[in-house]
Amino acid sequence: MTFKIGLTGGVASGKSTVSELFAAHGVAIIDADEISRELVEPGMPCYREIVSYFGNAALMPDNTLNRAWLREKVFTDEQHRQRLEQILHPAIKQQLRIRADNCRSAYCILSVPLLIEAGLQTTVDRILVIDCTPSTQMERLLQRPGIDAQMAEAIIATQVTPEQRLNFADDVIRNDDTRESLVAAVEQLHFKYLNLSEQSL
After folding, report:
1. Is 161 annotated as a binding residue?
2. Among 73, 79, 121, 181, which is disulfide-ready with 177 (CB 3.0 to 4.6 Å)?
3. Does pTM top 0.90 for this prediction?
């Protein structure tokens, strides 16, 4: 069975960048966001459930989901957010398990933004948290299209606090420094995870 590393962190902490650096070492990356996008393609069961709940207002003219509209709905209304998570989380969890079971690298990275919030920490062997200061997080978030300060604060409010997340961490990468330091931190952990995966066999 493949050794599984759960990679998580607050929004805009740098999870994608860290995933890319691990991938450069030949590590399989299983990305929950990517799975989520696949699950909501037109015609998929999750897509149909979302449209059934939110109505046609959730659709773009080409019948794909209007992500900006949905984001505003779920981050300003707790009931809407919970319903969307009820639709998506079980399907995402199932796909994470299937893809991890089929992984052929020495270990795999499961990149799951809401690993702690969704209670998925028991599905991995080790948890790597990407952490950064709140000011860095806000600065990066505001650079994303369609996100203002109010929306950024609403998104952050739906996630566990950095302190809560760090309580679950086996390993931590601080991502406030240079790319060089990030590359070095990933390389160090890569060799650590190779050793741990060998020991787990």
Report:
1. no
2. 181
3. yes
